[in-house]
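agent> step 3/5: call structure_predict on target 'Receptor L-domain domain-containing protein' (Maudiozyma exigua).
agent> reason: downstream docking stage needs a structural representation; sequence fetched in step 2, passing through unchanged.
tool.input:
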Amino acid sequence: MKLKYNIFVLNSLLITSAFASYLLNHELIGKISEAEVIAMSTIPNNQELCHKKNHELNNQDEINILARTCHEVVGNVEILKDYQDKYVDLSDIEKIHGDLSVHDCSQIISLNAPRLDTIGGGIKIKDLTSLVSITVPSLQNVHNIEFVTLPLLKDININRDIEQLDKLIISDTSLQSIESFQNVKKVNTLEINNNRYLANIDLHVDIVNEKLHIYSNADQAQVNFAKLSSTGDLSIRNAGSFNLNNLEYINKSLDIIENSIDQINLTKLKKVVGTVAIIDNDNLKDVNCNNLTHIEGGLLIINNDNLKNMDFLPSIHTIGGAIQIDGTFHKVTFEKLKVIKGGANFRSQSDKFNCTELLEPLMERHVIRGENLTCSSNMKNQSNLNQSNVTKISYNKTKTGKATGMKESMSSQTEITKSDSSAPSTTENSSKTGKVKSKKNSGLKLTSINIYGIGIWFLITFIFFSMF
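tool.output (status=ok):
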C-alpha cells in the first residue's frame, strides 16, 4: 500500500512539474508573441517614413527624425519654403534615391550633409538669399547639380572625385572658385553665369554633349577648358581670355560674343555643325582656325573693330548657311572655299577694303549658291555690288547680364509632383496587426483546451490510485 502511495505521489509530482513547465513555456510564448505584434506594427511605420515619393520637411526636428530612422531614404527630400530654422543638417542620411531640393528659403544660412554619398537624382538649391555655405564632402554619385540664385554663397565643399554629371549649373553666387568640380570629365549641360567674383573658371572636362555656356562672371574672367575635345552648343561671353586649344568638334553652334579677348586660338577645330558667330569683341585682333573645314550653319563676323584681316579660315571649303561680315576690316580671303549655300553680305567701313578683289574669284568658281549678295566699303571709286532680290541678314545684339542669365538659368527648374502613393496604407498595416493578434488569440484558446485536458487526466489518475 505504501509503495502504491509513493508511486501516486511521484506520478503527481511529475504531472504537476510538467504542467508548471507547460504553463511557463506558454507564458514565455505569450510574451514573445506580444513583442512580435509590437515589432510588426512598427515596421510599416518605418517603411512609410523612409519610403515616400516626397519627404517634405518644415524644420530641423523633422530632419532629425528622418535621419535617425532612415540612413537610406527612398524618394525626394524637399525642404519647404516655410522652413523654420537657419540650418539644414542631414546628419546620418547616407543615400537619397531621388532629388534633394531646397527652394525659396530666405532664412537658411548653411546646408550640411556630412555622410551623404549618393543622390539618385540631383541636388537643386535655388533662391536662398541668405545661404553662405554648402557642405557635402562624401558625395560621390549624383546626376544633376544646380546652384541658382544664391547671392551670398561663398563656400562649397563637395567631394572632388565626381567625374560625370548630366547637368552642372552655377548661377548668381558669390563664389570665387569652383575647384570642387575641377575633375568632372563628362557632362551633358554645363552653365556658369552671373557669378560676379568668379575670375577663374578652370575645369578638366573632356566632353560636353549638349550645352556649354559661360557668361557674365567676373570682369576679365579667365576661362580654361584645356582638355575639352568635343562639345554641343558653345557660348562664351564677357571673358578676358579662354583656352580651347584641344577642341576639335562643335556639334551645334559657336558663339563668341562681347568678350574683351585679344585673340582666339582654335587650332584643332575641324567642324562646326551649326552657326559660327564672332560678334562685338572690341579688343580682338587675331583669330586662328587653320584646320576648320566645315561650317554647316552660317558665318557671322560682326563689329570686331580691331580685327582687320579676315584670313583666318584658310582651310574652310563648305559653309552651309549665309555669310555676314560687318565691321572695319581691310581684307577677306577664302582660299579653299568651294560652296556657300546661302547668300553673302560684306560691309566694311574701311577705305581699304576692295569688294571686287574679294568677289570676282568667288563668282568665277560659282562658290556663292544663294541668290542674295551684297558688298560695300568706303574705298574711293569703287562700285558697290548689290544684286537684285537682296535679303538683309540682320543681327540683333544679344543682351547678356544678370537679368538675362538668371532668366535662362531659372527656366531649367523642374517641379516635383507631390504624392505619397508608394507608402504602405493604414488599412494594410491594421490588417497585418490584426492577423498577428488573431494568431495569438487562437494560441491562447489552444492553451486553455490543453490545460482542461490535463486537469481531467490528473483527476482520473487520482481516482484510479484511490481505489487501491
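agent> step 4/5: record observation. The two ends are 8 Å apart (CA to CA).
agent> proceeding.
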